[in-house]
Amino acid sequence: xxxxxxxxxxVVYRAAGSIEHTSHCYxxxxxxxxxxxxxxxxxxxxxxxxxxxxxxxxxxxxxxEHGRRAFxxxxxxxxxxxxxxxPERIAITLGTLDTPFTGTVDRELYTDTRPSWLPRADPxxxxxxDA
Length: 131
Description:
Largest sheet: 7 strands, mixed
Distance between the termini: 31 Å
Structural class: mainly beta
Oligomer: single chain
Number of strands: 10
Radius of gyration: 15 Å
Strand content: 35-45%
Order of helices and strands: EEEHEEEEEEE
């Protein structure tokens, strides 16, 4: 089960069930919304998502003809992304998880707009666990 919340904790959610896939999306809309190189998501069944607290604080922005981006109207935390073309699915932002995500990201989307300043992983570099 995935559990998460926004920065101010006005919104608290959980998602039961399996993750279909995970992704780093480098599209310019995700970059603008997250203020980062990418938006990182876990795609789950919409029916598996439960808003435990603060549903009234969630606001959606229609960023494209089919894309909807949900965020907390109090603190601005990006919470979810969904498509009108696949209403049975929703993507949860990995950065809002309160429970540790131990999986791996299996997709990179819109790599043509991946920022050049983002370093590539060096497999020989020491990890934080090695320090």
